[in-house]
Amino acid sequence: MANAVSTPLPLFDSLDRISQQRYPTELAASYSLEDIQKATDFLASYKGSTGTFNSYRREIERLLHWSALIAKKSLSELKREDIVEFVAFCQKPPLTWIGYSKPARFIECEGKRIPNPEWRPFVVTVSKAARRRGAELDTKEFRLSQGSLRELFAILSSFFNYLVQEEYAPINPVALIRQKSQFIRSFQSQSKIRRLSELQWQYVIETARKLAEQDADNHERTLFIMSALYAMYLRVSELAASQRWMPKMNDFARDSDNNWWFTTVGKGNKERQIAVSETMLEALKRWRKHLGLSLLPSAADYTPLLPRTKGQGPITSTNYIRKIVQFCFDSAILQLQQDGFHEEAELLNEATVHWLRHTGISDDVKIRPREHVRDDAGHSSGAITDRYIDVELRERHLSARKKIIFEEN
């Protein structure tokens, strides 16, 4: 039955447009416009974080499409069993609801901004390593990961709490689902932190240095980005300018003890100060010298930390930064292969930008006080930082390494 339903169009525009968005009256034939307006009001409250807004928009939009087109109910009518059905639906949506890419949600047409018919609520992906091996995208292979399921439950619960507070929904049906384990697996221990090995990191940073020496105009930026992501545990969103924050040179500042700190605004719109190491300070000096600036910034230096390669202003696209990092990874992979480290090269195929943050934290937690790493990383508790301490895992494996299955005569 679900497969016969027409493919839905996007409901919500970007963060900077959603407050002014007007919905066509023809939507009322299938959707509750009041549902859409409540969702719009809720999403607009997340102006402090583009990443959070995008995650909430994705899940709430899927819920609205399902409730209107599949369940044919308003949000205020949804019960516990409806949410169970919706989660099961998300695990195996109709093939016509699954896309191969993430096109723009809305496009300009004859002077008007209209929903993009190429957009889909779900997107099938393959791992980077599988893609390199020639694996093709197949909508029949779509799966929600355990992380995605956890995020889905958390977002839906938050949304329904809002609807209850607004007296729009009588209950939070997500909170009534006691057996979430039917969807979400529990784990005996924390999952392994995805990070670069020591050899991989040395090849990556050395590759960045060589690229900078060979083509300074393009790759001094690469070297600085790689250094900042690793040495200061930055998220990619903390390097790109956004509505809430623009990284500037004077975010590097010296205190009365002649120590340098970097101020950033991270996850949850939280500001934090990061202790700047001597090597990171040298990386900053090299980057500023390339830009034709003094070696160190003054308090009045509002120059963008990452200026555009062409034109004025800062880099605003996280995807652009990801492409820079990926080019460095790809170059390091080739060098690893040439030097005979084929397994390390294969594993580096899976690496993402965020692995650099994990790697920096994992390396530092071995030699710095845990509390210092926690505060620089912006972790809400020491328990999160503890996940990066793998000493116990090493000892556990060491104790098992010599285990004998049978005695040889």
For the structure shown, list the relevant keywords.
DNA polymerase, domain 1; two-stranded parallel sheet; hpI Integrase, Chain A; 2 domains; mainly alpha; 409 residues
Question: In words, what does this structure look like?
Answer:
Helix content is 44%, strand content 6%. It folds into two domains: 181 residues, Tyrosine recombinase, N-terminal domain (DNA polymerase, domain 1); 198 residues, Intergrase catalytic core (hpI Integrase, Chain A, Orthogonal Bundle), CATH 1.10.443. The chain is mainly alpha-helical. The mean pLDDT is 86.
Question: Mean of residue pLDDT?
Answer: 86
Derived from helix and strand composition plus strand pairing, the structural class reads mainly alpha
Distance between the terminal alpha carbons, to the nearest Å? 66 Å
Number of separate domains:
2
| Strand line-up of the largest beta sheet | 5-6-7
CATH architecture descriptor of the largest domain = Orthogonal Bundle
- What's the CATH class label of the largest domain? Mainly Alpha
CATH fourth-tier homologous superfamily of the largest domain: Intergrase catalytic core
CATH level-3 fold name of the largest domain: hpI Integrase, Chain A
Largest sheet: 3 strands, antiparallel
Give Rg in angstroms: 24 Å
Total count of helical runs of at least 4 residues? 14
Number of E-state strands: 7
Q: Roughly what fraction of the amino acids lie in strands?
A: 5-15%
Unreliable spans are none
Please tell me what the overall shape is. Answer: globular
| SSE arrangement, N to C | HHHEEEEHHHHEEEHHHHHHH
Helix content: 40-55%
